[in-house]
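Anyone up for a design puzzle?
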């Protein structure tokens, strides 16, 4: 049994992030931005959430894409995420930062892919996931800050790209990590 399976069985609830954890968001974003800027990057090239390390973009454009139907036409699950969601669906609660439009797209996307029974707690972009009492639970997120603040009993960082790069949102996390579902 893997570490992920052991902790998933132990935990009373499983709290999961979406972007960069269950959703291959950077892949979808680079597809869109590549078309706009005539580039050929992949999600693995992204080192910062604002994408300015790769494109001459700005926060407003990134937010516009995050809130667009276009993003969700390009979103896919990270490899293995669908199987994990199916196996543990009765224990899972999704906790995601988003504005209302982004939340609606996420909810509809999950509904349309067979997961309308899995609850989502949407938090504002400037809110802390530590507002959610995760005691006794397993929390899996790709962001070091979210994991550090959480009171979850078990914590794992999901590292989508199994390479030697430390992305800005992963910096400083010393706890357990997983690279696959």
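Challenge accepted. My sequence:
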């Amino acid at each position: 049994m893997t570490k992920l399976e052991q902790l998933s069985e132990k935990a009373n609830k499983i709290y999961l992030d979406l972007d960069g954890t269950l959703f291959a968001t950077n892949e979808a974003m680079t597809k869109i931005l590549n078309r706009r800027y005539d580039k050929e990057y992949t999600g693995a090239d992204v080192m910062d959430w604002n994408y300015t390390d790769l494109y001459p973009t700005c926060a407003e454009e990134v937010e516009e894409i995050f809130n667009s139907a276009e993003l969700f036409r390009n979103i896919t699950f990270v490899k293995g995420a669908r199987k994990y969601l199916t196996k543990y669906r009765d224990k899972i609660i999704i906790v995601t930062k988003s504005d209302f439009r982004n939340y609606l797209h996420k909810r509809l996307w999950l509904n349309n892919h067979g997961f309308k029974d899995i609850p989502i707690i949407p938090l504002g972009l400037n809110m802390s996931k530590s507002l959610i009492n995760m005691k006794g639970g397993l929390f899996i997120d790709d962001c070091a800050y979210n994991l550090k603040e959480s009171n979850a009993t078990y914590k794992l960082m999901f590292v989508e790209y199994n390479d030697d790069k430390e992305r800005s949102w992963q910096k400083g996390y010393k706890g357990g990590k997983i690279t696959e579902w």
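A detail worth pointing out: The chain has a mean pLDDT of 96.
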